Amino acid sequence: MRQTVEILLNLIEQLQLKVKDLESENQRLKDENNRLKGEQGKPDIKANSKGFKSQHSSEKERKTPKKHKKGSKNATIKIDQEEILEYPTDQLPADAEFKGYEQVIIQDISLATDNILFRKQKYYSPSVGKTYVAELPLGYEGEFGPGIKALIISLYARGQYDPRQTTRIFSRFRYFHLSRLFIQPVNQKPLRF
Asked: In the prediction, which pLDDT does 49 show?
């Protein structure tokens, strides 16, 4: 009888440890799920230890420094053009040997117009008395394309540009005509063009 009670007590202790482990794993998974949703998980509150050490550290000293891992930004930059710059050979000493290339990535942006002349087919039916005209592709309503519309909305919403400033930016492009009358409605109701 005594041996049976010991076996049962050992079994109960093992099951309690297993339940505790499963509860902590379940809570960890809930916290991870909440973190992925953008919420905060249950805080990990440690039990107070008995007494404090004689020396208290400041907040900075308590935090353990993490190793800073700075990745190479050049690995993610898309190269559009590659040029080889040659050193003038007449300025080199006679014993100079070629040792390869030193790479330098220069980032730049180019703004260019992309004006499109759509030639829409047009038909007339005398029997119906109606004219049929091909429609513009999706996004090309009005006289400006989706790229310029998105840029104007971004300048207004994120760049805090008013219509006068936006018109001034586009007036620097030759052969590009944009009036404040177009920009004002766009800024007031960005989804309607």
From this structure: 61
For residue 121, the Cα-to-chain-centroid distance in whole angstroms is: 41
**Closest by Cα among 110, 170, 168, 111 to 144:** 170
Strand ranges inside the chain, DSSP E: 122-125, 130-133
User: Residue 180: beta bridge partners?
Assistant: none
Cβ–Cβ under 8 Å, residues 119 and 136: no
CB 105 within 8 A of CB 78: no
- Interval 20-69: pLDDT, tens: 999 999 988 888 888 888 777 667 677 666 655 555 556 656 666 677 77
Pairwise CA distance, residues 173 & 177, whole Å:
8
149's CB contacts (< 8 A; 6+ apart) are 186, 193
Position 139: which residue type?
Answer: G
156: number of Cβ within 10 Å:
19
Query: Is the pTM for the entire model greater than 0.70?
Result: no
Query: Of 143, 166, 164, nearest to 153 (Cα)?
Result: 166
CA distances from 60 to 30, 48, 65 (A): 30, 21, 9
